[in-house]
Amino acid sequence: EDVVAEQVHVNAVLLENGDLRIEETATFTYKDRGRDWWNFYRTFRSGEIANISDISVFDHDYEQVYDFTNNYSPSNWPDSSTPFNTCYLVNDYGWEVGFNFPAMVKGQRTFTLRYTLSGVRQSEKYSDVDVLYFKFVQENTYPIQSLIQISEHTRQEANSYDVFCWNKKINYTTNNYTT
Questions:
Q1: For residue 81, is it left (φ>0), alpha (ψ between -120 and 50) or beta?
Q2: Which of 29, 61, 86, 93 is 20 to 30 A off residue 113, Cα-Cα?
């Protein structure tokens, strides 16, 4: 594979209004493919969500927050004129949220991508339970060596929760998970 996610940490919070606030921190290893690497994106199929908002990117290697540019497709720019250090959103044939980083031939980079998904097809908030069915790792994606955790509840009334992941109970107590 040309790019491998060595480590992915996902923090997902189901908000009171049913929106899903996601923070993904990932370390990628890029191999030399004969041309520069300069873009990363995440896609969502049409019908899976209604909207994406509150997009931000932090580049850990350069200690920089990227500027947001709305509704453009990176395929419209040749590599040499791409505005680096930007993040974007496009909704053509489904949703795409991504960012452009300074070009490199190969190496390892760490980024944090934050965004809010509205209209998540299968999320519900009730007075006593939260329900969320969401595919955090999409099909046809880069290989992921380690998925660290999927976490967080907005409920504050107890220290422990019954959390189920793929129909298997997870013991949850303040950010510690065991199966």
A1: alpha
A2: 93
